Amino acid sequence: MAIKIRLARGGSKKRPFYRIVAADTRMARDGRFIEKLGTYNPLLPKDSEERVVMDLDRVKHWLGHGAQTTERVSRMLEAAGVVEKKERLSPQKMKPGKKAQERAEEKAAKAAAAAEATEQAKAAPAEEAPAEEASEEAAG
């Protein structure tokens, strides 16, 4: 029997509340579970102590018996210091797609052209000012 430590949703519509449970992988998400290990209330502020409440001894017990954790629960356990942190995404997956890269290059080119135009605009009046003074001196 494969055991997972996962979240089981409770609460009403648009008011989520989760139980952290050890359950057989074949059971439904909100269905039968073996043991309730804690709770997770995403509506509370992130710095609240009641946001995530777990019985860490029982979690360690189940991990010792070969239970696997879901992604979200493993992040909670990492924050609690029960499990060591691990890399999640490969660098290849974090790169933007081809179209997004093209848009970024176009945006960078436009920004460079705009910066060049402002530099030329600043340089042009400085060059014209001595020419105007010279013409005034010649006329005067």
TrEMBL record:
<dbReference type="InterPro" id="IPR000307">
    <property type="entry name" value="Ribosomal_bS16"/>
</dbReference>
<feature type="compositionally biased region" description="Basic and acidic residues">
    <location>
        <begin position="99"/>
        <end position="109"/>
    </location>
</feature>
<dbReference type="GO" id="GO:0006412">
    <property type="term" value="P:translation"/>
</dbReference>
<comment type="similarity">
    <text>Belongs to the bacterial ribosomal protein bS16 family.</text>
</comment>
<keyword id="KW-0689">Ribosomal protein</keyword>
<dbReference type="Pfam" id="PF00886">
    <property type="entry name" value="Ribosomal_S16"/>
</dbReference>
<dbReference type="GO" id="GO:0003735">
    <property type="term" value="F:structural constituent of ribosome"/>
</dbReference>
<feature type="region of interest" description="Disordered">
    <location>
        <begin position="84"/>
        <end position="140"/>
    </location>
</feature>
<keyword id="KW-0687">Ribonucleoprotein</keyword>
<feature type="compositionally biased region" description="Acidic residues">
    <location>
        <begin position="129"/>
        <end position="140"/>
    </location>
</feature>
<dbReference type="GO" id="GO:0005737">
    <property type="term" value="C:cytoplasm"/>
</dbReference>
<protein>
    <recommendedName>
        <fullName>Small ribosomal subunit protein bS16</fullName>
    </recommendedName>
</protein>
<dbReference type="GO" id="GO:0015935">
    <property type="term" value="C:small ribosomal subunit"/>
</dbReference>
<feature type="compositionally biased region" description="Low complexity">
    <location>
        <begin position="110"/>
        <end position="128"/>
    </location>
</feature>
<dbReference type="InterPro" id="IPR023803">
    <property type="entry name" value="Ribosomal_bS16_dom_sf"/>
</dbReference>
